[in-house]
Amino acid sequence: MKATEVPAIAGAYLFEPTPYADERGFFCRTFDADVVRSVGLDPDTFIQDSLSRSARGVLRGMHLRSGAGEAKLVRCSYGKVFDVVVDLRPDSPTYRNWVSFELSGETQVTLYIPAGCAHGFQALTETADTSYRIDRPHDPAEDVTIRYDDPELAIPWPLPVTSMSERDREAPSLAEALKQKES
Questions:
Q1: How far apart are CA 183 and CA 181, in angstroms?
Q2: How far is CA 135 from the centre of its chain?
Q3: H helices within 28-136, ranges in order?
């Protein structure tokens, strides 16, 4: 497994496994505490694993947490997603930058998203399973959502949106969400 820094988002990393493929399929390590430690992260801080399943065109996001925020490891374990991270840490050298990745079950690449960054994705395949490893218990009172189509971000989502949660549909603009995050 190899760790690569994401230059557009300070403190973000891609963890790329080395799959072993044969006629049966493949096997790979999707988490390695020593590799996580090698980039200065504490693997013991991750306390919760979650999984979402989405159909093609479903959009989830843009989500972040207020207060101390929430760091997470995100991986598409099956299918393919267009994954987006927005740096919303005012003291970060990459503040307000966003970057996108195509994460897939074929590569099993894991993205580390630092606390204070917003995250969202759109399913590109008929079924896309996305796995999350999170560093804090979920507290719905700290949820912050930003409009996926905020003109200030201008994220070029690759497909028409087929479905999203009511919370995502009614999300405020980036400017409004940043005020909420600070409170």
A1: 6
A2: 13
A3: 33-38
29-57 pLDDT tens trace = 999 999 999 999 999 999 999 999 999 99
Counted residue by residue, the chain has a size of: 183
Q: Is 119 a catalytic residue?
A: no
**Residue 20 annotated to the active site:** no
Alpha-carbon span 62 to 71, nearest angstrom? 14
**pLDDT, tens digit, 9 for 90 and up, residues 60-94:** 999 999 988 999 999 999 999 999 999 999 999 99
Secondary structure element (H or E) that encloses residue 181, with its range: helix 174-182
Query: Is pTM, for the whole model, over 0.90?
Result: yes
| Spatial contact of 112 and 13, defined as CB atoms under 8 Å apart | yes
pLDDT value at residue 162: 97
Residue 58 carries which DSSP code?
A: B
**What tokens appear for 32 in the block?**
């390695």
- Nearest 5 degrees, angle CA 13-CA 102-CA 28? 65
Q: How far is residue 116 from each of residues 63, 81, 135, measured CA to CA in Å?
A: 10, 22, 12
Active-site residue, selected from the candidate residues 63, 78, 138, 148: 63
Is the separation of the CB atoms in 60 and 53 below 8 Å? no
The answer to whether 80 touches 103, Cβ cutoff 8 Å, is yes
Of 20, 132, 138, 148, which residue is the catalytic one?
A: 132
